[in-house]
Design a protein that fits this description.
Largest sheet: 3 strands, antiparallel
Oligomer: single chain
Number of domains: 1
Order of helices and strands: EEHEEHEHHHH
Number of helices: 6
Distance between the termini: 42 Å
CATH topology: rbstp2171
Helix content: 40-55%
Shape: globular
CATH architecture: 2-Layer Sandwich
CATH class: Alpha Beta
Strand order of the largest sheet: 1-2-5
Length: about 140
């Protein structure tokens, strides 16, 4: 069955209009698909147990959705290399997800980019729904 599995190709997308080439054209970023195992690792890293109010010794899991989204999306970026130390230093950050937010500093563009990468990875839940869920 594995031989019948289609391999998803990387996609190119303009993440922000503020980063341009020498001709003034917006740079295209390359995005790769995230694997289910990678998604599980990131989700685990972004989830913590929090105490249930009024119930001693009881906990529930809570996922930091903005952190989860930033980490999954930054993990998908092939170009530019968000792990490049020189690039991180130029923006004064030390983590790929922080660099992502610095490079795409327009909130609307950032949300659009997150949504596009999430959709590319097969997530059909609008980000607004996830943000509302995180608030509750």
């Amino acid at each position: 069955m594995k031989k019948n599995k289609k391999v998803k190709q990387n996609m190119k997308i303009v993440a922000t209009k503020s980063l341009t080439d020498e001709k003034g054209n917006p740079l295209e970023w390359e995005i790769r698909p995230l694997t289910s195992a990678e998604d599980d690792e990131i989700r685990y890293e972004c989830t913590k147990d929090v105490p249930v109010v009024g119930k001693p010794n009881q906990y529930r899991s809570k996922t930091d959705v903005p952190k989860y989204l930033a980490m999954t999306v930054s993990s998908c970026v092939v170009y530019p290399d968000l792990n490049d130390k020189d690039l991180q230093d130029s923006y004064g950050v030390t983590k790929p997800e922080a660099l992502l937010k610095e490079m795409i500093d327009d909130p609307g563009e950032y949300q659009d980019f997150l949504a596009a990468v999430q959709k590319f990875n097969g997530f059909d839940i609008p980000i607004e729904d996830e943000v509302e869920e995180a608030k509750n």
